[in-house]
Amino acid sequence: MDETQKFITENKQRFLDELIELLKIPSVSADPAFNQDVLNTADKVAEYLKAAGADNVEVCETSGYPVVYGEKLIDASLPTVLVYGHYDVQPADPLELWESGPFEPVIKKTEIHPEGAIFARGSADDKGQFFMHVKAFEAMNKSGQLPCNIKFMIEGEEEVGSSSLGEFVRNNKEKLKNDIILISDTEIISKEQPSISVGLRGLSYVEVEVKGADLDMHSGVYGGAVPNPLNVLSRMIAKLHDDDGRITIPGFYDDVEELSEQDRADMAKIPFSLDNYKKSIGISDIQGEKGYSTIERASIRPTLDVNGMWGGYIGKGAKTVIASHAFAKISMRLVPGQDPEKITKLFVDYFPTLAPSSVVVKVIPHHGGQAYVLPTSDKGFQAAKKAMTETFGKEALPARGGGSIPIVALFEKELGSKSVLMGFGLNSDVIHSPNEHFGLFNFYKGIETIPYFFKYYVEG
């Protein structure tokens, strides 16, 4: 790996400059206003793959945004690693909370990143992380040290549920045939303590609507006499948790796979500072389901959260109205054993029962996905552990992630492959929030580590 690491060292500034160019394109898949920007990003990713030395690079059309594919097949007798990532990003709202433009990348020093971090939407989720793989491949390829075959599948709809990727995977099984899937869309415990995500939570996402009168009403003339959908919706949402932080939907916990006491004891060994955790996100105290630690609440326990709530007048100044409609978007993070379709139906059946007869309630299901667990005995996990231990100088620990990558379970079902979640982000990267950032240490450490994964996977 000496020549590969030398190439990386000599090209670090160029790698960063190219990532910055990619981050400038606002590839927001959720908003049709950015349609051309998303398509332009796909073309840019394809351009970088070609420059890195990938063959048969394609921008593959789907029923939604395209999938960028590329490959380097050096020997059919060698293993094939499929790299998955996504080039789309979350909306940047609220824009006024960004310290610099979300699509105007800047390098700033922080307490956690004294060497600097890239502040931009998508820097950690997931442009910065999948780009590590493109650059690691370039280094292995151009130094003549690529030890096996590699394929890339970079999609543009992860942030909206990967709605087109399932069909693409089912229709391209031979093209995507592989021995292991490598993904960097997760985080490590800290810059000092590497870790590998061995579990992801699943997801059920819904939108709810509460309707009162046919039009907005004067709050003086009608206040106290007609239903207020915003008041009603607030009370309904409040009833979705009990005083112990447990979700009240009947049957919600029926299929939850509980961890053994030994597994929970092992999780408790993970280095964790509650004070640093609170400080990093600016809160004075924590909350959550009674009987579980903060790490457990954020990884092995299911959740229900309101992601947005609106209705009535929210402009400047005052407008005294009772809204005719109130809306909310709600996500439920699921754990192994829970089926997203079943959980969605339980919510659809239960939520309207919390409303008074004076309003009409509608529940609109959106996307979802299964939870995922990777056994630590898996060859891919072992290769990732050796690689991270090599570059960090400290043994990598297995850890459960709290986020969701719904497509991972589909990969195993359709392609028969396990996915190794070897991410390099930090929980302080504030992905999905204003001022998202990705440390330069993390970016370069990922590029440095990935070639060792290939080395150890082939040897293992």
Automatic annotation (TrEMBL):
Gene3D superfamilies from the UniProt entry: 3.30.70.360, Zn peptidases (3.40.630.10)
Chain segments annotated as coiled-coil in the UniProt record: none
Keyword Metal-binding: yes
Domain Peptidase M20 dimerisation: 198-356
A single BP term in Gene Ontology: proteolysis
Keywords in alphabetical order: Hydrolase, Metal-binding, Protease
GO MF annotations, alphabetized: metal ion binding; peptidase activity
Stored PANTHER family: BETA-ALA-HIS DIPEPTIDASE, SUCCINYL-DIAMINOPIMELATE DESUCCINYLASE
Record protein name field: Acetylornithine deacetylase/Succinyl-diaminopimelate desuccinylase
Organism: Moheibacter sediminis
